[in-house]
Design goal:
mainly alpha; 3 helices
Length: 81
């Protein structure tokens, strides 16, 4: 997986940033699902908030069947391991 480089300044998204920090402080394993329009900074926000943590990030493929989605997630998991 690629190394996340924390940005010196990450502008905006204070509300979302704070909520993600609170979720990250939960003392048990969690699954966090983020969805929304393309190209609005969802991935960058997650990578910046959790840059100091070990996270596994999986991305779905729009318009693919459930079988293809599961296969893709398993492939991504194999890349992590």
């Amino acid at each position: 997986p690629k190394q996340i480089v924390p940005l010196a300044k990450f502008v905006g998204r204070k509300f979302e940033w704070d909520r993600l920090v609170n979720i990250g402080n939960i003392k048990e394993p969690s699954i966090l699902v983020i969805y929304g329009r393309r190209r609005v900074g969802k991935t960058e926000l997650l990578e910046q908030v959790y840059a100091h943590r070990n996270i596994l990030k999986f991305e779905g493929i729009r318009g693919k069947s459930q079988e293809n989605q599961i296969s893709n997630i398993l492939w991504q998991l194999s890349e992590y391991t």
